[in-house]
Amino acid sequence: MHLALRNVTKRFGSLVANDRISFTVEPGEIHCLLGENGAGKSTLMNVLYGLYAADEGEILIDDEVQNFSGPGDAIAAGIGMVHQHFMLVPTFTVAENVVLGNESTGFAGSLDLEQARQRVREISARFGFHVDPDSVVEDLPVGVQQRVEIIKVLSRDAKVLVFDEPTAVLTPQETDELMAIMRQLRDEGTGIVFITHKLREVRAVADRITVIRRGKVVGEASPRAESAELAALMVGRPVELTVHKDAPRLGEDALVVSDLVVSDESGLVHVDNVSFTIRGGEVLCVAGVQGNGQTELAEAILGLQKRVSGSIRLDGQELVGRTVRKTLEAGVGFIPEDRQTDGLVGEFSIAENLMLDRSHGLPFVRRGTVQRATLRDFAEKKLREYDVRAPGIASHAATLSGGNQQKVVVARELSRDLRVLVAAQPTRGVDVGSIEFIHQQIVAARDTGIPVMVISAELDEVVALADRIMVLYRGQVVGIVPADTPRDVLGLMMAGERPAGVEA
Ligand SMILES: Nc1ncnc2c1ncn2[C@@H]1O[C@H](COP(=O)(O)OP(=O)(O)OP(=O)(O)O)[C@@H](O)[C@H]1O
Fold first, then answer.
1. Among the four given CATH numbers 3.40.630.30, 3.40.50.300, 3.40.30.10, 3.30.710.10, the one describing domain 252-347+414-495
2. DSSP alpha helices (H): ranges in 77-139?
3. Is 90 in the pocket of ligand 1 (CB under 6 A)?
4. Distance CA 212, CA 275 (A)
5. Which parts of the sequence belong to the ABC transporter domain (predicted)?
6. Counting atoms of ligand 1 from 1, which one is nearest the CA of 46?
7. How far is CA 156 from CA 103, 122, 159, in A?
8. Rounded to an integer, what distance in angstroms lies between the CA atom of residue 402 and that of residue 477?
9. What ipTM is given for this predicted complex?
10. CATH architecture classification, 3-235
């Protein structure tokens, strides 16, 4: 199936998110769509998937103009979307999810459960997925859940698959496996659109690369291009891909976590007797596959988790038992991993989001009145510094692209008076140009002498920022190792193995 988008334009009010974009996908190719945050990639894919109607331009399949009025039409035409936030029902089995996907779109070839089981087995065998149709989705690791998404899409006979930042939630090993799956799909004749900010991935699988910037196609790049060249094309200027940092000037023990246990209502233990210390001026990176207690650890420091025992001391003062507000007031900076639920209020403006948690007093509030001029100057400065692409400080956070939302959260947290910074996946969804800046800001925070804890599923990020690395597995510390520990050793530790010579 030959797919073409021709001169697609999509506007949001006065903003032109897609400006006469033309883009094709041939059978049996992986076509990467690269672009900085807010360039218009998701918008273009939403047009392709029938979620948005283009203001101008057309979608052609085998040279015939299509009129999609919703995803059902796109799916019936053979277009499949593998979503980053999985659309699966966690308590259903794999086969039930596959049936559900077909029903909800009203796709003509609806499957019954037995047929669905059979399809899951067939597709799974063809691609070596090892997915059991009767497994309950929530019991499966994230990487396998993603395969279920792929199976669901393939079971509807998709000929073109769109992967929108599919590796954000995967481990390095799962990412490699996904790359292999994409290659195999391609070799069987599927056309693939691949959106990612990770240049390593682009260079590993792309057959063709189209770069868009500010809504327009700026050119094609060679899949053999160096990362630096791709980065520069994407953001329109040279980008520093490695973080420069001096040796840490270590201060006193500053964040001291002892015998920490975090469990949930059902008694399940997420953080299992964890102890570590971060000194002032030091970055401790917490590496681990998502879901091994990192989230709960970070939330316990902020005071978001209820069932906590043990101790978390910051500069000698106990944080356990404090309210979130008191913890924030104690100087805890917190970048949450899920910006949409925990980081931002979508209906608030960018400016309002930048002063969240700081509405109790100066500099933004004086005798109960918001200091509009101060807030405006501050917000405009942060928008410039962090290169947030938005019409202005009054734009609602919900209308920003994912990467730009992330920048607003990071800008807010790093501009408070901090005594510790806890940053969970600080650059998730952020383009290379802004990763550079955010990393510099995190290093600058460390160089002011505060302890910094960075939680990241990205080994590149861990290696770039860490002074030491702590690996968590099933809520326990596998080991705390030096920053120059080889990647393969870290990979093994992330799978729960403790290499010889590493102490817990
Ligand atoms: N529903 C909306 N209302 C108003 N503006 C929007 C809406 N959706 C997207 N935009 C704007 O359109 C532009 C393109 O956004 P889009 O999400 O397509 O970018 P992207 O390339 O996918 O970025 P990222 O890499 O950050 O995900 C951005 O400026 C964004 O703020």
1. 3.40.50.300
2. 94-105, 113-127
3. no
4. 46
5. 3-239, 255-499
6. 18
7. 11, 13, 9
8. 31
9. 0.98
10. 3-Layer(aba) Sandwich (3.40)
